[in-house]
Amino acid sequence: VYYSLTSIYEANISVGLWFQVFASWISAIIFVSKLAFIRLKNDFLQKLMILIVPFFFGLWVILLWEIICVGLNVPLLLLPAPSLIGVQIANSLDILYADFYQTVIKAVIPGCGSAFILSIFIDRSPFLQRGLLPIGNLMSVMPIVGIAPIMVMWFGFDWQSKAAVVTIMTFFPMLVNTVAGLQIANNIDHDVMNTWGSSYWQSLLKMRLPKALPLIFNGLKINTTLALIGAIVAEFFGTPIVGMGFRISVEAQRMSFDLVWAEITMAAIVGSTLYGLLALLERYLTFWHPSFHNR
Questions:
Q1: pTM of this prediction?
Q2: What is the dihedral of CA 60, 63, 68, 70, to 10 degrees?
């Protein structure tokens, strides 16, 4: 009798759980669909709707994740509930900030920035343009798990080796987009600048770089994800006792998967934030581009 009652109770829980999943799914579809087709007279509020729709869709995904993990008693080692990840983030802010500073501030930004600076200097030499494009393509297809240990041996365990890995990963996309963008200026543009007696650097800063911004931002947005992935993977092969990759590797071995998921969540937030900031900066600096006229 006990086992029969237990099985009936578990069956009722299962039915209730899947009913909640189905109800939340239908509610999310109806709600998000209604929001997506709302047209407001206020331009600011209409632009704000672009952010509101994915925000509520993300909340629905998190709610569905929470319902499945709690309702099915998913083991923590397989997939922790979002509430547990949130508690871990709140309790580990000092650790997460130190890892963020080591990985993003000291590795991702210098590595990606150096690739852009190298692309600017390469533009001045046609010989380097022809010679480095094939080499950059070769470097872009090299496996990061093979490059990272070599960079650690060359530059040590600190941020310099991670910045070197990020530079290698982001160099080719940045080089291709920057060189292509700097070649957009036509002969008339160059003749006008020469008529005004401008030097190479004046033409670069006042005419060629502004014209190249759309392609440069394409390269930067691609590199936001590549750079973060490269820095995290590079930290698996040697780093001071700080960094996102180091924390993920160590805590996974300790079976502290709530902290692992907290690091993964922070990496996703950082990557999305960097991409969003670049998109806003692109919109501000390239408002004149035809791609924004109909938005």
A1: 0.73
A2: 180
